[in-house]
Amino acid sequence: MGLSERDRAILEFEGSWWLEPGPKEDRIRSRFRISPTRYYQLLAVLADTDDAEEYDPLVVRRVRRGRDRRRRARFEGRSAGGRPHR
User: Fold this and answer.
1) How many C-alpha atoms does 31 have within 13 Å on its Cβ side?
2) Are 52 and 60 in contact (CB under 8 A)?
3) Cα–Cα dist 7/62, whole Å
């Protein structure tokens, strides 16, 4: 099916958002005209596609690693930062 222009823009943004000043959430709203929650939903779906991995494997793998780390932390009953919940 291929990636849409917006899909490619999301992957490119995710790969370089820290190079621009200001909070990431504000830039998501202004650039994509969607909420940060919706952005992360779209990014998660994209990270599971072969097209996205082919387009930008480094970003996709980083997104997947972060997601896996958060899932593992929830399963183990600790925060993603590594500290156990009390």
Assistant:
1) 20
2) yes
3) 16
